[in-house]
Amino acid sequence: MSTEAPAAEVAEAAERAGSPRISLIAAAVLAVVVALLVAVLASSDPQTERQTQSPLLGRLAPPTEGRTLDGQEVSIDDYRGRWVFVNFFASWCIPCQTEHRQLRAFDEAHRRSGDAALVGVTYDNDTDEARAFFEERGGEWPVIDDPTNSIGVAYGVARVPETFVIAPDGTVVHRFPGEVTRKQLDEVIQLYEERAA
Amino acid sequence: MRSFLRSTRFRRGSWLVIVALVVVALVRNGVDERPTTNEDRVRSIASTMKCPVCRSQSVADSDVAAARAIRVEIARRVGAGESDDQIRDAIADTYGEGVQLTPRAGGLAGLVWILPVVAVVVALAALSAAFARWRRTSPTSATEADRALVDDALQHR
């Protein structure tokens, strides 16, 4: 068998496979599609940033009012002119139990100075259980009983504890997902006051 | 029978059937099956929202506190007479756009919808061009060289 015949077949197969121009165009289109997909993915925030970000930052705080565990009507508007820390918690939540002592220390210090107020909001918590939690562990700050979690949804709370920092003008400036310490809360006031100065 | 299968009429008919099936599938998918009760509406809206603390579960399917809270909020808004889009927007307004299981059609996220369509169109165009080229270059009958090749192969079997 001659070697010319296979060579002709190869040439014919190459001809059938199409010109390099089509391959180039296909590769270019594929590259553009991949580049656009990478651009879409790269433009989304990383997971770590999403945890501390909130669509609420920079906006006026959602209406935060209701009846407290001891039957008083309270609204964060009553504290306008002060830093307000809205803390969502549940008595069954272990990090909430851990941070409670820190919140007490923060509340006692700022209750005296009068520059900041702490307001608790129940989240997925039975009223009696939340009340028992405070009776057992202490704490003088008002706690809004929110059996439908509507305030939590208005703040976009995903899991407790979560604490939102509201500036004296009523704007939400910071979100703490998870457990907080007194030091963190003090630092955030200092940070935003320095920025405002 | 064989000649009919090879006929232009049969080929055109086959293409028409394929196009008709695609159109029917698209139209059927696009038909708005509206929920009849408020509970159905809540379920329908919740199934389009992502549970904020779960992996790959909708608000409708999850039983974590956040999902239950969002369902209650959806039910409240349905009861207040808000539209589905208004409710989805309100939830996304506090939980972020990531809570929407169906990406919006606008902005950079709209590429998620456009790119697959572009890819399919380009692929179809490339296939059509390739088929056309192959048809043009394919021999319609065996040449003398082909016959000689087959004879040679048969002799050496």
Summarize the structure.
The complex is a heterodimer of chains A (197) and B (157). Chain A has helices spanning 4-16, 20-42, 47-52, 94-113, 127-137, 150-155, 182-196; strands spanning 65-67, 73-75, 83-89, 116-122, 143-144, 162-166, 172-177.
Features:
heterodimer; A: 197 residues; Glutaredoxin; 2 domains; 5-stranded mixed β-sheet; two-stranded antiparallel ribbon; 7 helices; 7 strands; elongated; B: 157 residues; 3 domains
Description:
The complex is a heterodimer of chains A (197) and B (157). Chain A is of the alpha/beta class and 197 residues long. Chain A has helices at 4-16, 20-42, 47-52, 94-113, 127-137, 150-155, 182-196; strands at residues 65-67, 73-75, 83-89, 116-122, 143-144, 162-166, 172-177. In chain A, helix 4 packs across helix 7 (182-196). The model of chain A has no long low-confidence stretch (mean pLDDT 87). Chain B has 157 residues and is mainly α. Chain B is built from seven helices and no strands. Chain B has helices spanning 2-6, 8-30, 38-46, 65-79, 84-95, 111-137, 144-155. In chain B, helix 3 (38-46) crosses helix 4 (65-79) and helix 4 (65-79) packs antiparallel against helix 5 (84-95). The two termini of chain B are 34 Å apart. Classes of the chains: A alpha/beta (197), B mainly alpha (157). At the A-B interface, helix 1, helix 2 and helix 6 of A face helix 4, helix 5, helix 6 and helix 7 of B.
